[in-house]
Write a structure and sequence with these properties.
Elements: H1 2-15, E1 18-19, H2 24-38, H3 44-56, E2 64-65, H4 67-97
Antiparallel strand pairs: 1-2
């Protein structure tokens, strides 16, 4: 039963809006917390770069946000990166094979 209470307390902390970092020390502490929660295998530097870009793209009136927002967004960026890499590899393979299909797998329409 105690495990349930700890889980609920952690969930509440993750969903509570927190002040966004306004200094480098605060940025590193904040980003380390987000990276720890996301549980990704990418390097901390690349994840911090991604988090910095997220901060730059927030609305100008946004000074507080939940940790869970950034954890989910960071994981979504990782998902997008994998999907984009798959598309690139597939496109290059088809291009090398010269199978007459475009990158989406559609055969050209006959003309004439």
């Amino acid at each position: 039963m105690i495990g349930w209470f700890k889980k609920q307390a952690l969930k509440k902390q993750l969903e509570e809006p927190r002040e966004l970092p306004t200094g480098m020390t605060a940025f590193h502490e904040w980003s380390d917390r987000i990276i720890s929660g996301a549980g990704l295998t990418a390097t901390p530097e690349s994840q911090k770069y991604c988090l910095a870009n997220m901060l730059l793209n927030l609305k100008p009136t946004c000074a507080f946000e939940t940790d869970v927002y950034f954890i989910h967004a960071l994981r979504k960026f990782a998902i997008n990166q994998v999907a984009d890499e798959y598309r690139k590899v597939t496109y290059q393979a088809r291009k090398a094979q010269g199978d007459g299909h475009d990158a989406q797998g559609v055969a050209p329409t006959p003309t004439g």
